[in-house]
Amino acid sequence: MKVSFRKHHLLNILNEYSKKNLPVDLFLRKYFKSNKSLGSKDRKEISENLYKLIRWRGLIDFLCIKKPITFEERLDVLKNFDFKKFLKDEKIPTHIRVSFPKDYFEKVKNAYTHEKAIDFCLVSNSVAPTTIRTNLLKISREELFEILNKKYVVEKCKKSSSGIIFKKKINFFVSEEFKKGFFEIQDEGSQIVADLINPKPKDHVLDYCSGSGGKTLAFAHKMQKTGQIYLHDIRDHILLEAKKRFKRAGIENFQIKNTLQLEKLNKKMDFIILDVPCSGSGTLRRNPDLKWKFKLLEIDNLIKTQRQIFDDAISYLKKDGKIIYITCSIFPDENEKQIKYFLDKYNLKIEKKFFSFPEKNSMDGFFGCILGN
After folding, report:
1. Of 187, 216, 233, which one is at a domain's C-terminal end?
2. Which residues of 217-227 are buried (b: 16+ CB within 10 A; e: fewer)?
């Protein structure tokens, strides 16, 4: 039987992706780049079906009759798939109905409740909203909203004062507003966490696990182009991306520092940002493949890494400075329990805290806590 053009490519993607250890979005980008014959509508349909299959693979595999299960059979089930038909079928184990690994589901249930775990899984299997954050160094949210509202279907975020939600996905990277540095793509929960970081003009801020600088981009306007921001990350390639983003955003008061260069900053920082490596459990809508790859035993290693990062970073804090601990996790082991550990070890106090549980058509799961002496 002849396979359609899009199905042919989707099967290719599934077969090749299953042999790799790459995040699905990165793999997809590379595949589309090397297959120029795929138009925008092809890419859209292929992406939607791929993500739907990854999200609902647990239930889809349960519904497949032939064994061993092939990607062809999974795609046949996907054609007429509606997860709602099976949600109340008690003959199917709950974790399969919500398409999650059993141990992952149990961990969420033990941290919260059975109902909350179901809600978490269903939201994590939904499509995340497309949210941007206004670059207040260059434009106000009102001005940006007026411009975008003439071209797209948009609405203002309810909880983030600089956020705007797009009702339909667009290619941001070709838009004039993006090229001019008027906005960055950032989840509303991430925006609110970043807003906890509140440096004054002339302050010195260390973004210790900076990545490509997402949190710094969100607070830099508060410094009014004064003071100094120091970016540090063990991944050199991601710091190059940060440089590009800062240039587009119009941020000049920053320096990139390796670990040896940081020694000169000892006890000099007004703020230290620790956006630490974590399970990513709060952002599974955007990275649905993570739930199938992640081993819960890895959380023990993450907890050790998070503590080590805190231990290393706190030496750069001034006597009256603030340290902000951030994760995109919903697990108390990585959040509240870690804060208790830091409070006890360093005799710190909680100044402000934020936590968001993933919500349908709203923000992802984030945790942020400001600690001071």
Report:
1. 187
2. bbbbbbbeeeb
The CB density around residue 131, as the number of other CB atoms within 10 Å, is 22
**233 vs 230: CA distance, rounded Å:** 10
Span 92-141, pLDDT tens digits: 999 999 999 999 999 999 999 999 999 999 999 999 999 999 999 999 99
Number of residues that this document lists for the chain:
373
| CB contact burial 238-268 (16+ within 10 A = b; e otherwise) | ebeebeebbebbebebbebbeeeebeebeee
Range of the domain at 137: 130-187
Same domain, yes or no: 42 and 100: yes
pTM above 0.85, yes or no: yes
Write out pLDDT tens, residues 296-330: 889 999 999 999 999 999 999 999 999 999 999 99
Which residue bears the tokens 């940081």?
262
Looking at the structure, tell me whether residues 221 and 288 fall in a common domain: yes
In the beta sheet, which residues pair with residue 132? 164, 185
DSSP 3-state assignment of 11? helix
Helices (H) and strands (E) in the chain, counts: 17, 11
